[in-house]
């Protein structure tokens, strides 16, 4: 019997310093890939978590790389996952020597109606690319030991397993093939990943490949209708930022839902680029909804009758143009995390809090946008306090990223 899970990734390169990992190129046009050189085993030692998943993953596929999305859906009924609570306990056991995790609770906005019996849980999270965290991000108050992958991978998986979202939207994913895809596939998730064309991770020695956006969904709750990956443009010029857009059908209600995940251009001075990227994403989403089959009559739908979720690290505070672009969109979008405020109109004080050589940064950059006439926000996970985060801010021994996860429960509104 196998004692550990063996996962493999394919190496490609134009020079030893430039390309390390083959991206999901069939979904990401305009991304250069040149020469397959070798197949290399996943780094790191055996773990209890991977051992627990070995039997499930080995029985589902004998291939070392994930199957294409279309093949996963053609296999028929959803996979039967192992108990995620058991895996969560194993993560907690692996992390028993670290400080306790943040205690966060769900806030339930008052609707005057009873809570739905089957809400849809959505998680948005920039998990911090491993190569960037250890390399160029320079978190001066965070010990290097806290940034090591053997520690961080358990913290990230613990966070996901704690909240068990039906839809999981991640940014800065540079361990998709060797960690997140196989582990979450073993839990019954299907996924799509699109790496950045020129990921900064590739400039870090010993990197694990390019980072990008990944969208996972629970196959027991949703059926895949269509999916695409996008290289975003700004003022008609292709950029280094990407998005994944997916059309799903809820297995309980039969209703379809469009979900997108993105990560816009970072840093001050790039506000116009972010605004243009946001407009480009909205245009792609509208076109995708219109052409995607699976509407109520089986024909293509319209953006007016399809619920929409757009999750991402926008790298933009609420006063920026790209925020206003989404808030004033004809798609009727609203930001779910405003529900935490007393008036329902104000974003949280922060979704990221870090200290770099240039100083301390406490900002709201991450959002879950939803169509307010089609979806109701039933619950919102609150933010940890400044005291919980601690004086050294994020990341830390008890939290693996400089961005906080956003988690919301949604329900479909009654159709007219």
UniProtKB/TrEMBL annotation:
Localization terms from the record: Cytoplasm
Cofactor section: Mg(2+)
Tagged with keyword Endoplasmic reticulum: no
Pfam families: Exo_endo_phos (PF03372)
Gene Ontology cellular component list: cytoplasm
Predominant cellular place of this UniProt entry's protein: cytoplasm
Superkingdom, natural source: Eukaryota
Gene Ontology biological process terms, A to Z: circadian rhythm; nucleobase-containing compound metabolic process
Residue ranges annotated for the Endonuclease/exonuclease/phosphatase domain, each copy included: 123-403
GO molecular function term, any single one: metal ion binding
Entry keyword set: Biological rhythms, Cytoplasm, Hydrolase, Magnesium, Metal-binding
Keyword Magnesium: yes
UniProt record similarity statement: Belongs to the CCR4/nocturin family.
UniProt-recorded name of the protein: Nocturnin
Species annotation: Myripristis murdjan (pinecone soldierfish)
Gene that this polypeptide is encoded by: NOCT
């Amino acid at each position: 019997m196998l004692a550990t899970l063996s996962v493999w990734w394919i190496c490609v390169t134009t020079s030893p310093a430039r390309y390390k990992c083959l991206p999901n190129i069939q979904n990401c046009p305009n991304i250069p890939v040149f020469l397959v050189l070798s197949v290399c085993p996943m780094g790191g030692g055996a773990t209890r978590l991977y051992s627990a998943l070995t039997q499930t993953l080995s029985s589902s596929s004998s291939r070392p790389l994930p199957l294409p999305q279309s093949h996963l859906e053609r296999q028929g009924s959803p996979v039967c996952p192992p108990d995620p609570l058991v895996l969560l306990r194993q993560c907690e056991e692996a992390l028993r020597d670290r400080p306790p995790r943040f205690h966060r609770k769900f806030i339930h906005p008052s609707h005057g109606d009873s809570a739905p019996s089957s809400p849809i849980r959505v998680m948005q999270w920039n998990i911090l690319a491993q190569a960037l965290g250890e390399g160029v991000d320079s978190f001066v108050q965070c010990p290097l030991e806290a940034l090591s992958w053997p520690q961080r991978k358990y913290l990230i998986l613990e966070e996901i397993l704690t909240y068990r979202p039906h839809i999981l939207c991640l940014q800065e994913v540079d361990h998709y093939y060797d960690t997140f895809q196989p582990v979450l596939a073993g839990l019954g998730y299907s996924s799509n990943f699109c790496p950045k064309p020129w990921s900064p991770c590739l400039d870090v020695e010993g990197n694990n490949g390019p980072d990008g956006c990944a969208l996972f969904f629970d196959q027991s709750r949703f059926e895949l209708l269509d999916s695409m990956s996008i290289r975003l443009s700004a003022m008609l010029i292709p950029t280094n930022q990407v998005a994944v857009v997916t059309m799903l059908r809820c297995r309980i209600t039969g209703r379809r839902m469009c979900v997108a995940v993105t990560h816009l251009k970072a840093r001050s001075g790039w506000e116009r680029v972010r605004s243009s990227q946001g407009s480009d994403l909205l245009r792609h989403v509208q076109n995708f909804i219109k052409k995607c089959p699976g509407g109520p009559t089986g024909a293509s739908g319209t953006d007016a009758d399809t619920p929409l979720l757009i999750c991402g690290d926008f790298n933009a505070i609420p006063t920026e143009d790209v925020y206003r672009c989404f808030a004033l969109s004809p798609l009727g979008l609203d930001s779910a995390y405003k529900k935490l405020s007393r008036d329902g109109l104000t974003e949280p004080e922060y979704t990221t809090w870090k200290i770099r050589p240039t100083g301390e940064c406490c900002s709201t950059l991450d959002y879950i946008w939803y169509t307010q006439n089609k979806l109701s926000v039933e619950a919102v996970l609150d933010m940890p306090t400044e005291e919980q985060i601690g004086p050294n801010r994020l990341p830390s021994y008890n939290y693996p990223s400089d961005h906080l996860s956003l988690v919301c429960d949604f329900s479909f509104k009654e159709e007219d």
